[in-house]
Description:
Elements: H1 4-31, H2 38-41, H3 45-51, H4 53-82, H5 90-116, H6 124-140, H7 143-148
Helix pairs in contact: 1-4, 1-6, 3-4, 4-5, 5-6
Amino acid sequence: MIDLSRILNIASALLFVVGIVGMIYGLQELFLVAYLDEELIGVTASEIGVFSQNLLDSIKLKSHFEGLYMLSTALIFCVISLIPYRKGEKWAWYTLSVIGGLAVFGQIILIYIGVAGAISPSYLLPLAIVIVTLWIVGLALPAKEILSKTS
Length: 151
């Protein structure tokens, strides 16, 4: 039988991986130029800039805010998964399930819609499914022990 501390370490590592992927995505959105699928929209970023510099600046600003949001959420997710979740604290389990549920399922829905509408690259869907699986397993492994503890 595996003891609770080992299960918590494994679950914490799985959730930490989810947070790291979110941080990478956030950094990409924050520091790289806004992603524009030029084949899909039929114009380049420079053509948008010629049409309206304000529109191009708005697209870039939206990308930077999205990156900042993802980076900060993923950073909080990583810290909670490494410290209080590893200790088996009940509030950490609830926090990671709510924050993770909103972020992970929201992202997979958006990616699925994007792939179905040919807006997002198709390789993102399998990655999103792996992330959801890691999140579910990371929460499910110690759930019985954490939730049965008296605070």
